[in-house]
Design brief:
The protein has about 425 residues and is α+β, with helices and mostly antiparallel strands. The chain folds into three domains: about 1-185 and about 380-413, Uridine Diphospho-n-acetylenolpyruvylglucosamine Reductase, domain 3 (2-Layer Sandwich), CATH 3.30.465.10; about 185-285, Alpha-Beta Plaits; about 290-370, Alpha-Beta Plaits (2-Layer Sandwich), CATH 3.30.70.2740. Helix content is about 30%, strand content about 25%. It is built from 15 helices and 18 strands. The strands form five sheets. Strands 4-5-9-7-8 form a five-stranded antiparallel sheet. Strands 12-13-11-14 form a four-stranded antiparallel sheet.
């Protein structure tokens, strides 16, 4: 049986972690548990449920800043800022259905912990580029604050960068401030039909290098595009390359016309407007086109954009059934593969040696994620630095032991 602490205030969070430190009892941290199957499995006798640390503390639309508690649902935050004509520019994805869970269950703390970002990542940056400041309780049972509730802040150490992508292994967040931006007035998406992976990457690179300020670049091979609920994508009977433009109505219209003329030689073109465009990019953002079947293993590959097609060709030479989705102009490759005990890890990471990059096992059973490295193994110098950061924040390995690497589990139990 696992006992669970459910704090409702920062002080109660401090008390729970203080007890855990004094008793040397590791804690598994979570909010709505929507990302419990991301990273290595954590097994502890005690849980720290932060889901009741929720609610918006302060929102100043004119200042482009929102402060909220970590258990606040991302769906609530997005709805709030949309009501003021604003958005979270890092385009946080909703990955709950990828693991067979419900949609719209992700929290602000979870998005920070996993450093999640959607298709606008190559232009607007990741979650860590929009986190302004935070308060937290470290694994030393100390309350610290870092950053500020302002967009322009350049003083002190940039600790917000550390907690993003730390998967709750450094501290339990109690309050965070993030940057918001004006939402675009108009969105259009140019579709190019029938391109090979190699040709699509060249077309996306050309669009990215153009003066037309694209905000989304993705490519769907034919079998993946066929699953789309957007008619001009799902019924294309061909691979589909998507190029998004955002801004004012007049600007988007002019840029779209110019970019269509520039890209016309690549193949047949179509265009999606607001609702269909938003739907298509939501499918890409949430990787919903690769959700089924749920027993397939899913990898997230980050690599140089121009190397994506060659990398996938090498994988398909060994695994012809591999399905893929390209995002970030080819710099992000989602791979759905047949399930095996070793998750094809040696093949995928071995193929990266030729081009460089990182491979993260995003979906697999607990037994597989416990047996192989979920995250790309770090060079020893970087791994040593990561261990020193962990030691500074959480010397007893109290918080989410083993979530990112086996050493944490061994030292924390």
């Amino acid at each position: 049986m696992t006992d669970t602490f459910i704090p409702t205030t920062a002080q109660e969070t401090l008390d729970a972690i203080g007890w855990a430190v004094a008793e040397a009892k590791p804690l598994r941290l979570f909010g709505h548990n929507s990302k419990a199957r991301l990273g290595r499995p954590v097994q502890t006798a005690y849980n720290l449920d932060l889901s009741r640390l929720q609610g918006v503390v302060e929102y100043e639309p004119a200042e482009l800043v929102l402060t909220a508690r970590p258990g606040t649902p991302m769906a609530d935050i997005e709805a709030l800022v949309a009501g003021q004509g604003q958005m979270l520019a890092f385009e946080p994805p909703d990955f709950g259905p990828l693991w067979g869970g419900a949609a719209n269950r992700g929290t602000l703390g979870g998005a920070i912990g996993a450093n999640l970002a959607g298709p606008r990542r190559f232009k607007a940056g990741a979650m860590r580029d929009h986190l302004l400041g935070f308060s937290c309780v470290t694994g030393r049972a100390e309350i610290i604050k870092a950053g500020a509730k302002v967009v322009k802040n350049v003083t002190g150490y940039d600790l917000p960068k550390l907690v993003c992508g730390a998967y709750g292994t450094l501290a339990a967040l109690t309050e965070v401030s993030i940057k918001v931006l004006p939402a675009p007035e108009k969105t259009r998406t140019i579709l190019i039909y029938g391109l090979s992976d190699e040709a699509a990457i060249k077309a996306m690179a050309e669009a990215a290098a153009s003066p037309h300020e694209v905000s989304g670049l993705a490519h769907l091979p034919q079998t993946v595009a066929a699953r789309s609920g957007v008619r001009h994508v799902g019924d294309a009977n061909a691979a589909v390359t998507l190029i998004r433009l955002e801004g004012t109505d007049i600007s988007v219209k002019a840029r779209c016309t110019a970019l269509r003329e520039q890209l016309g030689r690549h193949g047949a073109l179509e265009e999606l407007h607001s609702l269909n465009s938003a739907w298509a990019w939501r499918e890409i953002r949430d990787v919903s086109l690769l959700v089924q079947p749920l027993d397939r293993q899913l990898w997230r590959i980050s690599l140089p954009p121009m190397q994506g097609a060659a990398y996938l060709a090498a994988i398909r030479a060994a695994l012809p059934m591999a399905e893929a989705l390209y995002d970030w102009a080819g710099g992000l490759l989602w791979l759905a593969l047949p399930a095996v005990e070793h998750a094809h890890a040696d093949l995928l990471r071995g193929a990266l040696a030729a081009c460089g990059g990182h491979a993260t096992l995003f979906r697999a059973p607990d037994s597989v994620r416990a047996a192989i490295p979920v995250f790309q193994p770090q060079p020893e110098a970087l791994a040593a630095l990561s261990r020193r950061v962990k030691q500074s924040f959480d010397p007893g390995n109290i918080l989410n032991p083993g979530r990112m690497e086996p050493r944490q589990m061994e030292a924390g139990v």
